[in-house]
Design a protein that fits this description.
- The chain contains ten helices and twelve strands.
- The protein is α/β, with parallel strands linked by helices and about 300 residues long.
- The strands form two sheets. It has a six-stranded parallel β-sheet, with helices on both faces. Strands 8-9-10-7-11-12 form a six-stranded mixed β-sheet.
């Protein structure tokens, strides 16, 4: 690019400070231009080290002439409405997961992005890790997988930076927090999820899902953010005609994964591409799976 992509950041929480802001500021194709957060002091703390401007309202960032793209690091109910306005203003979008608080809002957002013709990517962090890409490439090459499983178990909501996050403690719990990652990887590994065969949530926010995939594969998911385990357990596996293939742990740090995401994002904007395996339509599909599972647990 002859000029860096000007990116505005909405949000100033721990994830914005540790991942969004430094990655955007350090990437050769992007520049952190402006930051908005509900508390100006928090926005200043994020913007200051990177020479970014602090704005006093979301509209100043979303619809003004300060940015070409907007990255969001806010709760899903806040993100959806602001991202729709940003897309309508012609801004390219980097979206957190889940993309909205409800399936209806996720549809509205996806439709707004499509109508505006802007690029979008959802921060499905593990999809941008080299080991995950290599794993998925091998699975696609071999084919013949008939089942799989995912386990994402942590104590993140028991203490630490994210334990005070209100939206993570609401009705969906771990399903909405880490569920998008787990569902996305199983969907990418085994084929599109077409139905939720079963869903159960225990009193301590331990989720069990059984998912049906196009082509007949079946997978299982176990999720929790309230188990006293350290480090976090992240395991994916598939099995079938070629035996058993697993992907364990989170070897690539989130900051590096986000940098890889920015590589793809800048390439999309420069080339005028609006489709990607992790674009907003992916976010909508994941929202449908999560919404279906949640509704099964409440009758």
């Amino acid at each position: 690019m002859e000029q860096q992509l000007r990116v505005g950041l909405v949000g100033a929480g721990p994830w914005a400070r540790r991942v969004h802001a430094p990655a955007i500021a350090d990437h050769p194709g992007t520049r952190l231009s402006a930051v908005w957060a509900r508390r100006r002091a928090a926005a200043e703390e994020v913007a200051g080290p990177h020479g970014a401007q602090v704005v006093d309202s979301p509209d100043e960032l979303l619809t003004g002439d300060l940015v070409d793209a907007v990255a969001f690091a806010v709760p899903p109910d806040v993100q959806a409405e602001l991202a729709i306005r940003a897309a309508q203003a012609g801004r390219h979008l980097i979206l957190e997961k889940p993309v909205a608080a409800t399936l209806a809002d996720a549809r509205r957002l996806a439709d707004a992005v499509e109508q505006a013709g802007v690029a979008s990517l959802v921060v499905l962090t593990r999809r941008f890790a080299p080991e995950t890409r290599a794993w998925l490439e091998e699975l696609r090459r071999l084919e013949g997988w008939t089942g799989g499983s995912a386990r994402w178990l942590s104590g993140a909501l028991l203490g630490g930076d994210y334990s005070a996050s209100e939206w993570r403690h609401r009705d969906g719990g771990a399903l909405l927090d880490v569920g998008p990652h787990a569902v996305d990887l199983l969907d990418a590994a085994l084929g599109p999820i077409t139905e939720v065969l079963a869903a159960h949530r225990s009193p301590r926010d331990l989720w069990h899902l059984v998912l049906g995939h196009f082509g007949g594969a079946v997978s299982t998911v176990v999720l929790s953010g309230r188990l006293p385990v350290r480090p976090t357990i992240v395991e994916f596996s598939v099995y079938g005609e070629h035996g058993y293939r697993s992907l364990s742990g989170r070897d690539t740090p989130p900051l590096e994964c986000f940098t890889n995401l920015l590589d793809d994002f800048v390439a999309m904007v420069v080339s005028g591409t609006t489709t990607h395996p992790c674009d907003v339509r992916r976010g909508l599909h994941l929202q449908w799976v999560l919404d279906t599972a949640y509704r099964m647990t409440i009758g």
